[in-house]
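Sharing in case it's useful to others searching the archive later.

Someone asked me privately for the predicted structure of 2Fe-2S iron-sulfur cluster binding domain-containing protein, so I'm posting the question and my answer publicly. Question first, with the sequence:
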Amino acid sequence: MEDTHAIFPTAEVTRRTVIETGTTALLLSSLPRGALASGTGHVDPLPTSIALRVNSHLHNLTLDPRTTLLDALREHLAFTGSKKGCDHGQCGACTVLVEGRRINSCLTLAVMHDGHSITTVEGLASGEELHPMQAAFVEHDGFQCGYCTSGQICSAVGMLAESREGVPSYVTADLTQLAAELSDDEIRERMSGNICRCAAYPNIVAAIRQAMGEQT
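And my answer, the predicted structure tokens:
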């Protein structure tokens, strides 16, 4: 643990002052008078160098450590397929695969994924050949405005991988039959973190069902 006196040399830190004032109040009281009002009490963190392997290509970045993975992908690497919808982890439009696992990229910091392998919707296809999930979404018209589609597709790919590994969902009725074909209720539950404001849900379920038996 860092020496508080080294950071706040004017603070008299004792067990009693911590109990009486609370840690936050103690640290704020140690700042020079007027620091908060003038802005002199604010110190930006130093930029951090990281390496992200995005869609099989290594990218070296120097970022503010507060940069989200979503902003690193979109603003620094121009992978704009991942969308910023709610920016609160509630809509799923920013879903990407990190080491094969689906995550909301707006809720995680880029520096937390130094050295990790990341797949965005741009990295699913093989050249001109669409990924089976992408092809199924096209065939079943699993989108309307298309804003949520990249997150839906990445989430569906990750969801089927979870199912193959035996990960149950809230509606899984028989834990001994996890490898069986997913029902529509299972698909809906497992995809519930991805919102389609155009309400193309029946088509999305149909697309996932078609892709289910293919390599995803």
